[in-house]
Protein backbone atom coordinates (compact mmCIF):
# COMPACT_ATOMS: atom_id res chain seq x y z
CA UNK A 1 0.00 0.00 0.00
CA UNK A 2 2.92 2.34 0.70
CA UNK A 3 3.99 2.09 -2.94
CA UNK A 4 0.69 3.73 -3.99
CA UNK A 5 1.44 6.76 -1.85
CA UNK A 6 5.01 6.85 -3.18
CA UNK A 7 3.67 7.00 -6.73
CA UNK A 8 1.28 9.80 -5.76
CA UNK A 9 4.24 11.71 -4.36
CA UNK A 10 6.14 11.29 -7.64
CA UNK A 11 3.13 12.77 -9.45
CA UNK A 12 2.84 15.90 -7.33
CA UNK A 13 6.33 16.70 -6.05
CA UNK A 14 7.14 18.81 -9.12
CA UNK A 15 3.62 20.21 -9.45
CA UNK A 16 3.78 23.96 -8.78
CA UNK A 17 0.13 24.25 -7.72
CA UNK A 18 0.78 21.67 -4.99
CA UNK A 19 3.57 23.76 -3.46
CA UNK A 20 1.65 27.02 -3.84
CA UNK A 21 -1.43 25.75 -2.00
CA UNK A 22 0.58 23.94 0.67
CA UNK A 23 2.71 27.06 1.07
CA UNK A 24 -0.36 29.29 1.46
CA UNK A 25 -1.68 27.04 4.22
CA UNK A 26 1.70 26.80 5.97
CA UNK A 27 2.29 30.56 5.78
CA UNK A 28 -1.14 32.09 6.33
CA UNK A 29 -2.20 29.95 9.31
CA UNK A 30 0.63 31.10 11.63
CA UNK A 31 0.49 34.68 10.30
CA UNK A 32 -3.23 34.90 10.97
CA UNK A 33 -2.88 33.45 14.46
CA UNK A 34 0.01 35.80 15.20
CA UNK A 35 -2.11 38.78 14.09
CA UNK A 36 -5.06 37.68 16.23
CA UNK A 37 -2.85 37.00 19.24
CA UNK A 38 -1.38 40.51 18.96
CA UNK A 39 -4.67 42.39 18.75
CA UNK A 40 -5.78 42.28 15.14
CA UNK A 41 -9.34 41.60 16.35
CA UNK A 42 -10.39 43.97 19.11
CA UNK A 43 -13.57 45.18 20.76
CA UNK A 44 -14.29 48.89 20.90
CA UNK A 45 -11.57 50.23 18.64
CA UNK A 46 -8.24 49.61 16.95
CA UNK A 47 -4.59 50.31 17.64
CA UNK A 48 -4.10 51.10 21.32
CA UNK A 49 -7.84 51.46 21.75
CA UNK A 50 -10.14 48.53 22.25
CA UNK A 51 -9.73 45.27 24.09
CA UNK A 52 -7.80 42.31 22.74
CA UNK A 53 -10.29 39.68 23.85
CA UNK A 54 -8.56 36.74 22.12
CA UNK A 55 -4.99 36.99 23.44
CA UNK A 56 -5.81 34.73 26.40
CA UNK A 57 -7.05 32.09 23.94
CA UNK A 58 -3.42 31.50 22.96
CA UNK A 59 -2.41 30.26 26.38
CA UNK A 60 -2.55 26.61 27.40
CA UNK A 61 -4.94 24.81 27.18
CA UNK A 62 -7.21 27.13 25.13
CA UNK A 63 -4.59 27.45 22.37
CA UNK A 64 -5.42 23.96 21.05
CA UNK A 65 -9.03 24.81 20.34
CA UNK A 66 -8.24 28.30 19.03
CA UNK A 67 -5.56 27.29 16.52
CA UNK A 68 -7.74 24.33 15.53
CA UNK A 69 -10.69 26.63 14.86
CA UNK A 70 -8.68 28.86 12.51
CA UNK A 71 -7.11 25.76 10.98
CA UNK A 72 -10.57 24.60 9.90
CA UNK A 73 -10.75 27.72 7.72
CA UNK A 74 -7.31 27.52 6.13
CA UNK A 75 -7.67 23.77 5.48
CA UNK A 76 -9.76 24.90 2.49
CA UNK A 77 -6.48 25.45 0.60
CA UNK A 78 -5.63 21.76 0.97
CA UNK A 79 -9.18 20.71 0.09
CA UNK A 80 -8.83 22.64 -3.17
CA UNK A 81 -5.48 20.92 -3.70
CA UNK A 82 -7.08 17.46 -3.32
CA UNK A 83 -9.75 18.41 -5.84
CA UNK A 84 -7.24 19.69 -8.40
CA UNK A 85 -4.90 16.71 -8.06
CA UNK A 86 -7.78 14.23 -8.40
CA UNK A 87 -9.67 15.91 -11.24
CA UNK A 88 -6.46 16.40 -13.22
CA UNK A 89 -6.17 12.62 -13.41
CA UNK A 90 -9.43 12.57 -15.37
CA UNK A 91 -8.70 15.69 -17.40
CA UNK A 92 -5.32 14.42 -18.62
CA UNK A 93 -6.40 10.74 -18.78
CA UNK A 94 -3.59 9.67 -16.44
CA UNK A 95 -6.14 7.54 -14.57
CA UNK A 96 -6.51 5.42 -17.71
CA UNK A 97 -2.74 5.21 -18.05
CA UNK A 98 -2.49 3.89 -14.50
CA UNK A 99 -4.90 1.08 -15.39
CA UNK A 100 -3.01 0.34 -18.61
CA UNK A 101 0.17 0.10 -16.53
CA UNK A 102 -1.40 -2.59 -14.37
CA UNK A 103 -3.28 -0.80 -11.61
CA UNK A 104 -6.76 -1.82 -10.62
CA UNK A 105 -9.36 0.91 -10.27
CA UNK A 106 -9.56 0.32 -6.54
CA UNK A 107 -5.79 0.82 -6.28
CA UNK A 108 -6.13 4.16 -8.03
CA UNK A 109 -8.83 5.12 -5.53
CA UNK A 110 -6.83 3.95 -2.53
CA UNK A 111 -3.85 5.98 -3.74
CA UNK A 112 -5.99 9.13 -3.50
CA UNK A 113 -7.37 8.05 -0.11
CA UNK A 114 -3.83 7.55 1.15
CA UNK A 115 -2.92 11.01 -0.11
CA UNK A 116 -5.82 12.45 1.90
CA UNK A 117 -4.74 10.57 5.03
CA UNK A 118 -1.09 11.61 4.58
CA UNK A 119 -2.02 15.27 4.16
CA UNK A 120 -4.24 15.04 7.26
CA UNK A 121 -1.35 13.59 9.28
CA UNK A 122 1.07 16.28 8.10
CA UNK A 123 -1.25 19.20 8.79
CA UNK A 124 -2.06 17.72 12.21
CA UNK A 125 1.65 17.62 13.08
CA UNK A 126 1.96 21.21 11.84
CA UNK A 127 -1.07 22.24 13.90
CA UNK A 128 0.44 20.63 17.01
CA UNK A 129 3.75 22.45 16.51
CA UNK A 130 2.02 25.81 15.99
CA UNK A 131 -0.17 25.31 19.05
CA UNK A 132 2.86 24.50 21.21
CA UNK A 133 4.80 27.52 19.92
CA UNK A 134 1.92 29.95 20.48
CA UNK A 135 1.10 28.35 23.82
CA UNK A 136 4.64 28.69 25.14
CA UNK A 137 4.93 32.25 23.78
CA UNK A 138 1.77 33.35 25.59
CA UNK A 139 1.90 31.15 28.70
CA UNK A 140 5.61 31.37 29.39
CA UNK A 141 5.76 27.61 30.00
CA UNK A 142 4.72 24.32 28.43
CA UNK A 143 1.94 22.06 29.64
CA UNK A 144 0.37 18.99 28.08
CA UNK A 145 -2.42 16.66 29.12
CA UNK A 146 -4.63 13.89 27.80
CA UNK A 147 -7.20 16.55 26.90
CA UNK A 148 -4.63 18.24 24.67
CA UNK A 149 -3.86 14.92 22.98
CA UNK A 150 -7.60 14.60 22.34
CA UNK A 151 -7.57 18.01 20.65
CA UNK A 152 -4.79 16.85 18.34
CA UNK A 153 -6.80 13.76 17.37
CA UNK A 154 -9.84 15.99 16.82
CA UNK A 155 -7.89 18.17 14.39
CA UNK A 156 -6.79 15.08 12.48
CA UNK A 157 -10.42 14.02 12.13
CA UNK A 158 -11.40 17.54 11.10
CA UNK A 159 -8.74 17.49 8.36
CA UNK A 160 -9.84 14.03 7.26
CA UNK A 161 -13.45 15.21 7.15
CA UNK A 162 -12.74 18.25 4.95
CA UNK A 163 -10.30 16.51 2.62
CA UNK A 164 -12.48 13.40 2.42
CA UNK A 165 -15.43 15.48 1.24
CA UNK A 166 -13.16 17.21 -1.30
CA UNK A 167 -12.04 13.82 -2.66
CA UNK A 168 -15.63 12.59 -2.93
CA UNK A 169 -16.74 15.72 -4.83
CA UNK A 170 -13.78 15.49 -7.22
CA UNK A 171 -14.66 11.87 -8.06
CA UNK A 172 -18.35 12.70 -8.40
CA UNK A 173 -18.00 15.84 -10.55
CA UNK A 174 -14.59 15.16 -12.20
CA UNK A 175 -14.16 18.81 -13.24
CA UNK A 176 -11.90 20.93 -11.05
CA UNK A 177 -13.70 24.27 -11.42
CA UNK A 178 -17.14 22.83 -10.73
CA UNK A 179 -15.91 20.65 -7.87
CA UNK A 180 -14.11 23.56 -6.20
CA UNK A 181 -17.19 25.75 -6.64
CA UNK A 182 -19.46 23.11 -5.12
CA UNK A 183 -17.10 22.54 -2.21
CA UNK A 184 -16.82 26.24 -1.37
CA UNK A 185 -20.54 26.79 -1.87
CA UNK A 186 -21.40 23.92 0.43
CA UNK A 187 -18.81 24.62 3.13
CA UNK A 188 -19.43 28.37 3.33
CA UNK A 189 -23.13 28.78 2.50
CA UNK A 190 -25.27 25.67 2.01
CA UNK A 191 -24.32 23.84 5.18
CA UNK A 192 -24.63 26.98 7.32
CA UNK A 193 -28.12 27.66 5.95
CA UNK A 194 -29.17 24.03 6.39
CA UNK A 195 -27.78 23.92 9.93
CA UNK A 196 -29.57 27.13 10.88
CA UNK A 197 -32.87 25.97 9.44
CA UNK A 198 -32.73 22.58 11.17
CA UNK A 199 -31.79 24.10 14.51
CA UNK A 200 -34.40 26.86 14.25
CA UNK A 201 -37.46 25.21 12.74
CA UNK A 202 -37.10 21.91 14.57
CA UNK A 203 -35.86 23.52 17.80
CA UNK A 204 -32.99 21.03 17.96
CA UNK A 205 -29.19 21.26 17.76
CA UNK A 206 -28.96 18.29 15.42
CA UNK A 207 -28.17 20.56 12.49
CA UNK A 208 -24.69 20.62 14.05
CA UNK A 209 -24.25 17.01 12.96
CA UNK A 210 -24.03 17.93 9.29
CA UNK A 211 -20.79 16.78 7.61
CA UNK A 212 -18.34 19.65 8.15
CA UNK A 213 -20.06 21.20 11.16
CA UNK A 214 -19.77 17.95 13.11
CA UNK A 215 -15.98 18.11 13.01
CA UNK A 216 -15.98 21.89 13.57
CA UNK A 217 -17.86 21.33 16.83
CA UNK A 218 -14.96 19.24 18.12
CA UNK A 219 -12.77 22.37 18.14
CA UNK A 220 -15.16 25.29 18.81
CA UNK A 221 -14.18 28.96 18.82
CA UNK A 222 -12.86 29.79 22.34
CA UNK A 223 -14.93 32.98 22.54
CA UNK A 224 -18.10 30.92 22.12
CA UNK A 225 -16.92 28.56 24.83
CA UNK A 226 -16.30 31.51 27.17
CA UNK A 227 -19.75 32.94 26.41
CA UNK A 228 -21.46 29.62 27.14
CA UNK A 229 -19.54 29.33 30.40
CA UNK A 230 -20.61 32.82 31.50
CA UNK A 231 -24.24 32.05 30.64
CA UNK A 232 -24.06 28.61 32.27
CA UNK A 233 -25.16 27.01 29.01
CA UNK A 234 -24.63 23.27 28.63
CA UNK A 235 -24.11 21.68 25.23
CA UNK A 236 -27.03 19.41 24.34
CA UNK A 237 -24.81 17.22 22.19
CA UNK A 238 -21.74 15.59 23.71
CA UNK A 239 -18.34 15.59 22.01
CA UNK A 240 -18.61 11.82 21.71
CA UNK A 241 -21.61 12.27 19.42
CA UNK A 242 -19.73 14.75 17.25
CA UNK A 243 -16.80 12.34 17.15
CA UNK A 244 -19.00 9.44 16.02
CA UNK A 245 -20.76 11.66 13.46
CA UNK A 246 -17.43 12.76 11.99
CA UNK A 247 -16.21 9.17 11.71
CA UNK A 248 -19.49 8.17 10.07
CA UNK A 249 -19.27 10.98 7.52
CA UNK A 250 -15.69 9.98 6.66
CA UNK A 251 -16.96 6.44 6.14
CA UNK A 252 -19.75 7.73 3.90
CA UNK A 253 -17.24 9.66 1.76
CA UNK A 254 -15.09 6.54 1.35
CA UNK A 255 -17.92 4.16 0.47
CA UNK A 256 -19.73 6.62 -1.82
CA UNK A 257 -16.52 7.67 -3.58
CA UNK A 258 -15.51 4.06 -4.10
CA UNK A 259 -18.92 3.15 -5.53
CA UNK A 260 -18.86 6.12 -7.91
CA UNK A 261 -15.36 5.47 -9.18
CA UNK A 262 -15.96 1.76 -9.79
CA UNK A 263 -19.27 2.45 -11.55
CA UNK A 264 -18.30 5.36 -13.81
CA UNK A 265 -16.74 4.98 -17.24
CA UNK A 266 -13.16 6.13 -17.67
Could you walk me through the main structural features you see in this protein, from its secondary elements to its overall organization?
The chain is mainly α. The protein is 74% helix and 0% strand. The protein contains 11 helices and no strands. It has helices at residues 2-12, 16-37, 62-74, 76-91, 94-100, 105-139, 146-173, 176-201, 211-216, 222-230, 239-263. Helix 7 (146-173) packs across helix 8.
Overall outline: globular
- Topology order in helix (H) and strand (E) letters: HHHHHHHHHHH
| Mean pLDDT over the residues | 89
The structure class reads: mainly alpha
List unreliable stretches of 5+ residues: none
Radius of gyration: 20 Å
Beta-strand residue fraction: under 5%
Largest sheet: none
Question: Whole-Å distance between the termini?
Answer: 23 Å
Count of alpha and pi helical runs: 11
Total beta strand runs? 0
Helix content: over 70%
Helix/strand layout:
Layout (H helix, E strand, L loop, with lengths): L1 H11 L3 H22 L24 H13 L1 H16 L2 H7 L4 H35 L6 H28 L2 H26 L9 H6 L5 H9 L8 H25 L3
Give short descriptive properties of this protein.
266 residues; mainly alpha; 11 helices; globular
Task: Give a summary of the structure in a few sentences.
With 266 residues, the chain is mainly alpha-helical. The chain contains 11 helices and no strands. The model has no long low-confidence stretch (mean pLDDT 89).
